Amino acid sequence: MNHAARYALKAIRASITTNMLMDPSARNNALYAINCCWEDEAFGYILRDPIDLRLLTLPAQHGALRIMQTCLPRFPGHVNDVRCIVGFVSLLSSPHTEVVCGCADALFPLSSIVPGFAYAMAKAYCNLIAHTPSLQTENMLIVFDRLQQLKSAIMEGSGMDDMATYVLRALAVSDLVVQQKVLNLAMGLLTPWNVKSMVHFLHNEKNAATATTEYCVMLEHAIQACNKKMILEGDMH
Prior knowledge:
Blueprint: H1 3-18, H2 24-48, H3 58-71, H4 82-92, H5 97-113, H6 117-131, H7 137-149, H8 151-154, H9 160-168, H10 176-187, H11 195-206, H12 213-236
Helix pairs in contact: 1-2, 2-3, 3-5, 4-6, 5-7, 6-9, 7-10, 9-10, 10-12, 11-12
């Protein structure tokens, strides 16, 4: 939107707002259409310039989240745009807990409206943690609790069988509570097609020199759960 178009919209909005003779329903519809134009333009800026939204001020992060919540249902195809995913996950990993909570809460309605949203966010968030494991523990727990609740929506993703492995990458976080949340989510994503790769990953993780005794016990329990899954699948066939 160029400068002239923005100026025209401001003028039209001012005229509509002050026109008391205008039908209230028509006024509301017109103002809604203008607001959509502003929001769509702001959403376009996020996509064109995918900066790390975590670096914005707190009010700006709230504004970016509101824009994405409003615009994504109108443009569900953008869930396949890596810039959109990067933007939302950036907010999901914000240092501000209130922003993380807002994003986590937004996962529920957006996942029911935008096909593949939960899958895309879970994959991107776990991948981010694998490379940036120093996020605040409290915030990571909030996100993993939400992802656990969205497990069925995550499993609807087209690459679901690879998702468990992506989730396990988040074990890079050296916090036992977070690691248990990661394992719980991964175990809920087991399928007959990914269970063997899961066992292989977990064995490698257990054999790592940095694994503590308590962490090894957690991994062993997960391996046993995978083995039971394989036995049950074998009995069914």
